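Handoff note, outgoing to incoming analyst
You'll be picking up this chain. Sequence as last confirmed:
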Amino acid sequence: MIEESGIFIKQVLRLTRKYPSIEYDVQSLKIELPRLAFKHIAPLNIHIVTIEKENNFCKKVWRIRLINSNNNKGKRGGYRVFYCEGKEENSILLLGIYPKPEIKDDEYAKIAKDLVSASYL
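Most recent structure output, in case you need it:
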């Protein structure tokens, strides 16, 4: 089962203005993600950071590349989707989605921590 955080939903709605096909791209991800989730397949699917807090709270945040069908620029023109284990067993929580040009490679860990903090309040 795939869940979407409130942040993820807001980001998709915001990006819909610039990238009208984003909802189609996300639907295709939802079909493929259960097969690819939590497997290190560089550079497609990569573990970003493990976040630990009190009360045995531990989340491993992953990042997967998603093709942007509105932008034919290959790897540079796609989206980066952050996800982790969901709140229920065998579920995946989509935390956030960013167009690649908006984030730098050294920002992934900070973004992942911020997304987990906002999603698990």
